[in-house]
Sequence to fold (203 residues):
Amino acid sequence: LDAFDMVEEEMDNIRQALSWSIGTDPAVALQLAADLGWYWNQRGHWVEALHWQAECQQRCRGARSRAMAWMLARKSFMHSQYADGDTATREAEGASEIASEQNDDRCIAWCEISLAFAQVHGRRQTRGRAEYLATLDHCTTALDIFRRMDDQSGVASALLFQVLAWWLHGDADRAQRLAVEAARIARHAGPRTMSSATAYLLG
Fold:
């Protein structure tokens, strides 16, 4: 959270940097947009995020870089926040394809979480058993990758999205068991936002 506060304080300068680099060096803008993705999502700056992400995507059309993969993965989250599950899924699938070309396993895992989020949050009016099963499949894939990488923060994140799926599906007991595990891991390895989220779900 302290890092996010620092970004917040520098946001006017960051906007100037984005505006300048989009016009002069789009690859720099793309990397900056990729790096800012989690900040934008966590702070709820989805409109601004989608504006800059769309600008970068347009100027870097055809790029198959890690920065493009990460930017698209984060952009998928923004579309899910607006219940645009189809666009969110398309962005996450595109990101995963590029990440696979780049052998970026961490990004692939986050693409799986983006796909899971698109199922449970991006389709609020049409959620059914198929969507929940797809969500759990994506979370399990992400969990396997994070565990193989020994990325405990990623493990906590994947578990937390499983919690969300089971909770929305009505299985509170299973959701709580997974939330306890996610909270234990997050206390040691995850960001404070993760610990706060699991604490909230645990009530």
